[in-house]
Amino acid sequence: MFAFADVRGGAGNNPSWHRSGSGLKKLNSIHDFVSCGEYLISEGFIHRNKLSALGISAGSLLVGAAINMCPELFRAAILKVPFLDVLKSLLDPSLPLTTLDYEEFGNPQTQSYFEYILKYSPYDNIPQGVCCPSMLVSASFNDSRVGVWEAAKWVAKMRDTACSSCSSAVILRTNINGGHFQEGGRFTHCWETAYEYAYLMKVVGATEE
User: Fold this and answer.
1) How many CA atoms lie within 13 A of 55 on its CB side?
2) What is the pTM (predicted TM-score) of this model?
3) Which residues are catalytic?
4) All domains of the chain in start order, with CATH
5) Could you tell me if 173 and 208 are in contact, meaning their C-beta atoms sit under 8 angstroms apart?
6) Which of 5-9, 116-120, 151-155 is most confident?
């Protein structure tokens, strides 16, 4: 079963729904995503030991922050070209999307935004010694939007910080040739999707009821 959580999207003609989940209210969007997962479990759509999450680019920020807050909620997660080291990236205006991202996240050169972003930035909030879900983290070496180092740093810190039995379940997969949008055409997209499904079936299928 797939559930698409359009967390704090445009909401049609009501942009206030999006604005109330951005800037100094960004935590609302993360809490909403956690609530979506809890709802799927409480309503019986999915077993509580088999909930998985997928985040792409800035969507990985949402998933990564939710994993930090509620690691026990998820069995597995896929983070693709993930935006995880939010605070440090937004402090570097030389990066391609930094100034554009100020509209969504705020400028951390202002103290109030710095302190607020620090509360949810996935890289800065990995809990010590906690059991984490299995994770497949994919990055592209030629990604001009999200640096390949963000995924690498996240995986390294997660392996170093999480409990020892979970650290080996965090996998980094790097595409040496691709960019942010995994260039390669339809057949490459099908291959990538099959790889991700195989990963989820291996991880979730091994879960005992």
Assistant:
1) 26
2) 0.90
3) 57, 143, 180
4) 1-46 (no CATH), 53-85+122-205 (3.40.50.1820)
5) no
6) 116-120
